[in-house]
Amino acid sequence: MLKDKIEDLKKEKDVVILAHNYQIPEVQDVADFVGDSLGLARQAAKTPHKIILFCGVHFMAETAAIISPEKKVLIPDIAAGCSLSDSITLEQLKQWKKEHPSAITIGYVNTTAEIKSELDYCCTSSNAVNVVKAIPDDKEILFLPDMFLGSYVAKMTGRKNMLIWAGECHVHAGITPENVKEKLNSLAHAEFLIHPECSCTTPMMYDVANGSYNSNQVQILSTEGMMNHVKNSKSNEFVVATETGILYRMKQQNPTKKFIPASENAECEYMKMITLDKVYNSLLNETTVITVPKEIADKARLAIERMLEIS
Ligand code: 13P
Ligand code: SF4
């Protein structure tokens, strides 16, 4: 079986497999760690293994290569990109910084290595609020590239001097307030979990800040924050507003609870490019190796290390 062959190669070549929560079930099953962007970056930083096989999208594998430069980092499909990380170019960022020369630049981990090399701080959905809180109040902030995460962070921190780039992830932006209303109206007792990249976040912000929507309890969380929440919550039913791949792990770890996607269409085609066949080929041939030029990696590492220090 392919799964057994993968296990054998993993041992033989001293490989750790890291997989994001949105990966297909078969890929999650062969991974040593499944988690969110922050958790996987932490695993990449401390792994004792020689090779990291990253089952996720390109910027995640790049982040692993930057923080563990002595390791070989592989991605099973080099075409696994991210619409959010494509929403700002290096030229655009340089121009933005030029217009605000004394601002602190905070970028989401969903950015290319080149963009990260121009940042003061990197953040993920699980620590964005705390990263912004760590910046002195009088400092202007440039936040990029996700506008929904940015608006959420500005609301939670009360920050007024924060400029937000107008980028978005097509998957999360596609989960609309209408999708959510429709589900919640018919499920009075379900808790509602939203990823802050969702477009439904902003219009619902007032209700969310009050801790509820209709009669439903609402939580805005990163993917791993969602995993922890469903495990500890007394509720038995959850409407989940993020990429649907996470439902597999939720159901597996909480077999008596019920999980309903806010939108069945919320599938990231980039995440789904990683198949078990490609994982096997990647291990066998040690392809595709992710490399980041040293001068870019050295600068980007500073922003990533600051992110890892703040949880
Ligand atoms: P997190 O795993 O950090 O919540 O991010 C979600 C995401 O969209 C990654 O592409
Ligand atoms: Fe990028 Fe969106 Fe896919 Fe996440 S879900 S990898 S942010 S395109």
Q: How would you characterize the overall build of this protein?
A:
There is one protein chain. This protein has helices spanning 2-13, 25-30, 37-46, 58-67, 90-99, 113-116, 128-133, 147-157, 170-173, 177-186, 205-209, 223-232, 246-253, 276-285, 294-309, and strands at residues 15-20, 33-35, 51-55, 72-74, 104-108, 121-123, 141-144, 162-164, 191-194, 212-213, 216-220, 237-241, 258-261. It has 311 residues and is of the alpha/beta class. Helix 1 (2-13) packs parallel to helix 14 (276-285), helix 4 (58-67) crosses helix 15 and helix 12 (223-232) packs parallel to helix 13. The longest helix has 16 residues, at 294-309. The protein is globular. The chain starts with a helix and ends with a helix. The model has no long low-confidence stretch (mean pLDDT 94). The site of 1,3-dihydroxyacetonephosphate (13P) has 11 residues, from helix 3.
